[in-house]
Amino acid sequence: MSNTETEAPVRSPCVGVCCPGDHDLCTGCLRNAMEIAEWGVLSNDEKREILAKIRRREKGEIC
Q: pLDDT tens-digit profile of 8-31?
């Protein structure tokens, strides 16, 4: 069994407040519509990349 098969899935940043805000980002989790729609089929590495983008969005570094 490979490492990816035994690795726990990365949890969604969803907080149940789905509302489009500035730059078409959800005001609850700061993901865009594509990131939200694709979350279930992304690899853990791809999900971590989105979580890193969210942290940068929180700091105002990117939109």
A: 999 999 999 889 888 899 999 999
